[in-house]
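Hi, here's the filled form for the chain we discussed.

Project: internal
Contact: R.S.
Residues: 278
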Amino acid sequence: MSATAVSVKAGVKKIPGKLRLDYFPGVGAVGIFSLVFLYFPMLIVVWYSFNAGNQALAWQGFSLRWYDRVFHDAAIISATQMSLEIAAIATVASVVLAVAYVLAMDRLNRVGNAVAGAILAAPIVVPEVVLGIATLSFIRLIGMTPGFLPLVLAHTSFCFPFAMMNIRARYQGLNPAYFESAADLGATRSALTWRITLPLLAPGIVSGALLAFVVSMDDYMISTFLASAGTTTLPIYIFGLIRKGVNPSVNVVATLLLIMAIAVTVATSFLSRGSAKK
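And the returned structure, exactly as it came back:
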């Protein structure tokens, strides 16, 4: 009899070979409660975005009038356009920088690569309040004032790690035989980069860009420190609406942002599965 097996006749359960969560009492209930607490409020927001009344959480019938109002509200449209412009520029810049880093990291030794990765990924760990204050202090020191350019620079800096993680994961999963075969066939470094590496990195680049775009669109804390008159982003405008009094238009905007996030998640999932199959 093995050391991990116990006689069934003795009435003792077999000792599991691996630690599993279902051996701990209450894990299932806690998990269900966590999921309900996380997702049920989102369903409430979506449901009350179709409210016909003027109160955000007082149901008075089904209506699409708040969607019509949001799509024709000049202030919301302006804030959305500002967020889209900043997010688009920051996404392109962060993806370009992330691709450049991923292509250059092979030239670093193991220690240098680890140090560079830790430094560049710092915005994920550092609290956003600290990043906002530090960025505001920095632009003041170099003579800049809050506005469009500081917002773009700040969004690029904290979107970069999210793009980098996806692109780097894709790059590390590539088969080295592709590059070795191309080199044996006489491919130059430039041809190897443009005709082999970048096409293979395409799924990671797209998923990284989508994630960076959503992170930029969703940012409130750092944007608060760097926004000025005429550069109000959508999250800042939503918070202003809440302070004035919550109405179903807030639910509508939140629902639209949730749909965008779900679409990005689904697209990223399909890209990951497609690249894994290939």
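Let me know if anything looks off before we file it.
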